[in-house]
Design goal:
This protein has 132 residues and is an alpha+beta fold. Helix content is 23%, strand content 32%. It has one domain: Rossmann fold (3-Layer(aba) Sandwich), CATH 3.40.50.
């Protein structure tokens, strides 16, 4: 379960921290409030294609971090197979984009590939939109 999402210099967002709670979490708001930007940042964190256009205007990089609680035995086993240990049942994913085109991914501060990040993301989040 996603417990916390931190976004820095992503699109129009300078800095934001969103805390999620057990159960259903719903993003609502008026047009232009930033709902789609939050979802885009989460998708990036979970391994979707990166684009330097995501970096906030005037900045050289953007960062998205997510703290996840992992309780599913199959997911824990998959993480273990990848050599990833949970800390108190949690992992921290981080993705950094640079205007130079560099794209760095981390789990618990250890580097990993976008493909590995995507495989982990597929097990952590089941995201649905209004047209699903």
């Amino acid at each position: 379960m996603l417990r916390e999402l931190r976004i820095h210099n992503f699109a129009i967002i300078e800095n934001v921290r969103v805390v999620f709670h057990p159960g259903l979490n719903v993003l609502t708001g008026e047009t232009g409030a930033g709902k789609t930007i939050l979802i885009s940042a989460l998708n990036l964190l979970l391994g979707s294609r990166a684009d330097t256009d995501f970096i906030r205007s005037g900045q050289s990089s953007a960062t998205v971090e997510g703290r996840f609680e992992v309780t599913d035995p199959e997911t824990l086993r998959h993480l273990e197979e990848l050599g990833i240990e949970t800390e108190d049942g949690e992992i921290l994913l981080k993705r950094q984009l640079s205007t130079t085109g560099k794209n760095r991914c981390f789990v618990n501060d250890s580097g990993l590939t976008v493909a590995a990040l995507s495989r982990i993301g597929d097990r952590l989040v089941d995201l649905h939109g209004q047209h699903d």
